[in-house]
Amino acid sequence: MIELKLKRMLLQLDFSFFAVLALYLLLDESGFGLAALAACAMHEMAHFVAMTVFGVRVERLTFYGAGIRITSAAIEQAKPLRRAVVLGAGCAVNFIAAAVFCQMREYAASAVNLFIGVFNLLPMGQLDGTGLLKIAAIRFCRVDKVDKVMKAACIVSEALCACVVLLFGGDVPFTFVTTALYIIFMSCSKI
Q1: pLDDT tens across 109-137, in order?
Q2: Taking the mean position of all CA atoms in its chain, how far away is CA 98?
Q3: Nearest of 80, 45, 60, 36 to residue 183 by alpha carbon
Q4: Strand pairing category for 67-71 and 9-13
Q5: Residue 101 above 60 pLDDT?
Q6: pLDDT-derived band at 88, boundaries 50, 70, 90
Q7: Is the pLDDT at 106 greater than 60, yes or no?
Q8: Distances in Å between the alpha carbon of 170 and those of 12, 77, 175?
Q9: Phi/psi at 10 (nearest 5 deg)?
Q10: How far is CA 35 from CA 64, 93, 158, in A?
Q11: Which phi and psi angles does 107 have, rounded to 5°?
Q12: DSSP code, position 29
C-alpha cells in the first residue's frame, strides 16, 4: 500500500485498487466500465466536497479493490441533516450529471449516472442508502426497531438486485453483472 500525507489527510492507494481497475477495464468491451468509473469518481468527489463545505475533516481517503472509502470520525458526530446532505451529495451529483448528459443526447453516459445514483441509494452494505435509511429510522422508529428495519431493507434490496442480475444478466455488460454480484455478496456478508 502506498500512503501519502496531504496536510491532515492520509491518502492510501492499495494495490488491489489498481489490480481490480486493470481487470475491470480489460474485461470491459462495451465502454460501460470507463463511464461507470467516471460517474463513481464524480460521486465520491461530491461527498468529499460536501464534507469540506460543512467543515468535516476527512482523515483518510482510501482507494482499494472495492472502490473508494472516505474516512471521517467527525461525520458520525455531525447533526443528522448534515450527515444526510453529505451522504446524498454523491447521488445528487449523479442525477444532475444524468440530466445534463440526457440534454446533450449522451444517453449512455446519462444511463450510467442514473444507475450509479439509484444504486447507491439502496440500503445495503456500505452504500449511501444504508446511512440515509439509518438516519430516517432513528428519527421515525422506536430505538428497538431500528436494527430490524435496517436488516429487512437490506434483505429486500439484495433480493431485488439478485433478481435483476439473474433476469437481465445476459443483456447487460459483463462488468455490470460482476460489479452487482460483488456488491450483493459483500453486503450479504455484513448481515
Answers
A1: 898 899 889 888 888 877 888 889 989 98
A2: 16
A3: 36
A4: unpaired
A5: yes
A6: very high
A7: yes
A8: 36, 44, 12
A9: -100, 125
A10: 19, 15, 24
A11: -70, -35
A12: -
Long-range contacts of 107-112 (CB under 8 A, 24+ apart): 108/31, 108/32, 108/35, 109/35, 109/39, 112/32, 112/35, 112/36, 112/39
**In this structure, what are the phi and psi dihedrals at residue 66, rounded to the nearest 5 degrees?**
-95, 0
Cα distance from N-terminal residue to C-terminal residue, the chain? 28
Tell me the three cell numbers of residue 97: 450529471
Q: Of all residues in the chain, what percent carry a pLDDT higher than 70?
A: 86
Q: What is the pTM of this model?
A: 0.77
CB 127 within 8 A of CB 108: no
Rounded to an integer, what distance in angstroms lies between the CA atom of residue 188 and that of residue 15?
Answer: 25
158-190 CB burial, b ≥16 within 10 A, e <16 = beebeeebeeeeeeebebbbebbeebbeebeee
**Three-state DSSP class for residue 184:** helix
Question: What are 38-73's pLDDT values in tens digits?
Answer: 888 899 999 999 998 998 888 888 888 777 888 888
- pLDDT given for residue 93 in this prediction: 96
Consecutive H or E run containing 4: strand 2-6
